[in-house]
Each structure stands twice: as C-alpha cells, then as structure tokens.
What we know:
Strand order of the largest sheet: 1-2
Largest sheet: 2 strands, antiparallel
Amino acid sequence: VLKNKSDASFGSRYIIDPFSVDVNISGIWHFQSCNHTKQCCLAAAGLIGAAYLALCAAFPALSFGQIQVRFAEVFTLLPLFTPAGIWGVTIGCALSNIYGLALGTNIIGIWDIFLGTGATFVAAVLTYKFRDIQFRGLPILSALMPVLLNALVVGGELTMVMSPTFDLRIFWLNFGSVGLGEFIACFVIGLPLYRYLQSSGL
Length: 202
C-alpha cells in the first residue's frame, strides 16, 4: 500500500507501507516511476530480466562454473530502486540458468534452475528489505545479500556436483570462488553504479 506524503495530486512522494504485504512480500508490485501500476512493474521486470539474460549469454564462460564472475548479478542491486527489480533478476536468473543448461555450460544442471534462482529471489527480497540500512550512503548490507546467498547455495550446488560425499574443503573453495565473483559484480561494479544512478536521478 502506498501512502501519500504530500497533498499535491501530481509529483507527490510516496512511501511503501511495510506492513501491507502481498504474497508475504511488502509492496512488491509498486514501481515508483510507472505511476505505481502493475503493468509498468511487469514491463520493468521484463526488461531487467532480458538484460540479465543478455549479459549471461554474452559471457557464458564467466556466468557458469566453479570460477565465475556473473556480470549480470550487478542487476541484483536494482531492488534498491524498485521492487520490480526483485522479479526482474529472478526471471533473468531462471532464464539464464535454463540457457546455460541448454548450452551445456551450466555444469550444475537442472537443480540450478530451482535452487540458484531461489537464492537469487531471496537475496533480491532481502536487498529490498535492507535498502534503508546504509553506511556512508552505501547500502552495504543489501549488496552483501546476493554475495552470501549465492556463495552458500551455488557453492553448495557445485560441491554436490564435484564431490558426492560433500567434502567441506571443496565446499569452502567453491564458497570463496563464487563469493568473490559475486563481490566483484555487486561491490566493485554494482555499488559505484548504484551511486551514479542515485546521484543522476535516473
């Protein structure tokens, strides 16, 4: 539910009521720059998803595998600006994992479509939830969500593929490798991009 913070009928500022929840995710359908319509939110989510897929398709060798820097993960910070980003990165991740499976570069297999996409969805929701917790103007906690969750889930998936007995040493290697790639996407690239978008008013 959006609450008007001023009496002006146009150009008014809105806030999302965190206690009004659709499918247990507060305000997830509202999109600030699209007059708060579901249609615009869906369109924005579709564009984000398409951009995510395009980046994964452009860099398939870096988007899958034990050593990966999935540049498309920079979009996981878009929920900081709009809840449409939650659906966008989730759709994009699902399509990218299907694409990687069809291409043969996604060594994890079909489980990544469900577990990897689920990790992206939960991380996006948490990124959105923690958007107001900032350190020196940067949403460090929000940016940390996709790093930790993907390192844990994707690192675990890779370990199951590489070690039937789930060797913890291999898991921590995969955790660190995936986490480093996510850190590059979310912190090295994502946070400067966030600051640019925020300052430019785009």
